[in-house]
Fold Long-chain-fatty-acid--CoA ligase.
Amino acid sequence: MTAGLERTWVAHYAEGVPTEIEPPDSSLVDLLTQAATAYGPRPALEFFGAETTYAELRAQVDRAAEGLRRLGVGAGDRVALVLPNCPQHIVAFYAVLRLGAVVVEHNPLYTATEMAHQLADHGATVAVVWDRVAPTVTGLPEAPQVVAVDLTAAMPWTKRAALRLPVRRARGLRAQLTAAAPGTVPWRELLEHGPLDPSVPGPGVDDLAAIQYTSGTTGRPKGAMLSHRNLVANAAQGRAWVPGLTPGHEVVYAVLPMFHAYGLTLCLTFAMSIGARLVLFPRFDVDLVLAAAKKHPPTFLPAVPPIYQRLAVAARERGIDLTATRFSISGAMPLPRETLELWEEVTGGLLVEGYGLTETSPVAIGNPIGLERRPGAVGVPFPSTDIRVVDPDDPTRDRPPGERGELLIRGPQVFGGYWNRPEETAASLLDGGWFRTGDIVTVDPDGFVSVVDRIKELIITGGFNVMPSEVEEAVRTVPGVTDAAVVGLPRPDGSEELVAVVTTEPGAEVDLEAVQARCRSQLAAYKVPRRVVVVDELPRSLLGKVLRRQVRDSLLEG
C-alpha cells in the first residue's frame, strides 16, 4: 500500500491552520470538564430562551450519571438515546459517557420496525427517549428500560405556563411536544439522587464512545464504532480549521439533528470544546431560528444547503440581521453556487463546503476558510488526514493524478469498524488504516477533491442517507407489486427525490397513495417515495440483480 497522495493541499490552508494536529490525550468527558472549568458561568445551552451555564451542565451530567448508574448502567453498556435536540439530550450524552458506557443515537421519528432492528443489534438495556415517542420503544417485544424525557421541562416557565392554557392552540402545541409515557422512568427522577461519586472511573481515550448507525449498499444499517479518540480528534481538527474562532464567545446554532453524525460532532462535541453558546432547536423551523437570531445571532452555523437557502430568503424578506454569522459549514449534499452566493450576500460571512462520513467522525475534507476555497469542490483533507484515489475493483492500485477513482481516507478520526460486523469491517478498513469511502472522486494538482459519483447507491434527501434496499422491502409488500427499485433523482437544491420504480401483477393498479401509506407504516417519513413509476420490467444483471443505476439513468433520460 502506498502512503497516499503528496500533501500539495497544505499550501492552500487558511493562514494559521496547522498541517498536523496533536489530539488531546483525553476523553469527551474530559473535554466537557475542561470547558466547565474554563467557562463555568458562561451559557452553554439555550433552549427557547432558557439558559444553562457550563457549571450547571456539568452538575446535571454528574447527577444524571448517578441516576443511570442506579438503573444498572456501567462501563461498556450501550444506552440508546431517542431524542430531538434539547438540553436533556446533551446531559444524557455526557452522562452515559461519564460511566464509561456507550451512546447509541437514534432518530426519534423511526418506526417500531426500524427501532427494533437497531436495538436488537446493539443490545441496550436502557433507553432515554422523548416521551412523545416512548410508545414506539416500550411497545417492542423486548423493550429496554425507558427513561422518558419531557421537552417542555427545559423551557422557560413562561412558555411552560402558556402551553398549559385551556385553549385549542396551546393544547395542540403541547401535544406536539410532550405526552404521557406510562411504564417509564421520568427523566427528572434521574437527577434526584445527587452527583456521581467522583471515584467511579470514567472512560479511557481509546474506549468506545458511540455507535452511529449508517446505511450501506446492502442489508440493514450497520453501527459505526467511534472511540473517544476519534471524536475528540475530529473536534480538534474542526477547531484548527477555523482559526478565527474565539473560545468562550461563539454562538453555534444546533439546527442539525444531534442524532446524525454531522450534528453530533459539530454541536455535541465541537461546540462544547470551544465553550460556545449552543442554541438548540428540536427541529428546523425558519420562524424559531430567526426569532432566536434577534437576541443571540449565530456566529458559526453548520447546516445543509436547503437550510441556508430558506434562512437567507426569509431573513432578507423580514429585514433580520444575520451579519454576525462569520463562518458557515455546509455538508451532506452538494452546495449550489446560487445558495452560496445568496448566503454570503445576506450574512457577509463565509460559507464553505465540506465532506465526511459517519465512519470519519464525520468530517475529513473541507474547503479552506478564506479566499482559497473552491466552490464545486468539497475541499482538501483536514490536518493529519491523508487520502488516496484507487481503482474501485482493486484498491491496492492507485489511480494516476486527475483520474477518477475511489476515495480512501486515513486519519485519527477514522472509525474502528462496524459493530458485530467483522466481515464488513475487513472489507472497509484496509491495511495501513485506510478506509474505503465508496465514493468516486477526482483530485486536482492542488489537492482539491471533487465527488463525481457514488459506488454506494445511497440516496441523500434532506441531509439524511436512505438505503434503497430498505425502502424496496417496504414497497414490495404493497398489494399488486411484484418487484421494486428505489432511486434518487436530483433536485435543484442539491438533494434527491425518492422515486419507486415498480413492476406489477397483470391487471393490478398501484398508485402513489398506496405505496406511501405502506411505507409510512414501516419507515421514517424521509424514506417515503415521492413518486411511483410503473414499468413492464426492471433491468437486471446476469445474476438477476436489479441494476439501479440503469433505472436511474432511464428516468433521467425521460
About this structure: The radius of gyration is 23 Å. Residues 459-556 form a domain with the GMP Synthetase; Chain A, domain 3 fold (CATH 3.30.300.30). The CA atoms of residues 387 and 409 lie 5 Å apart.
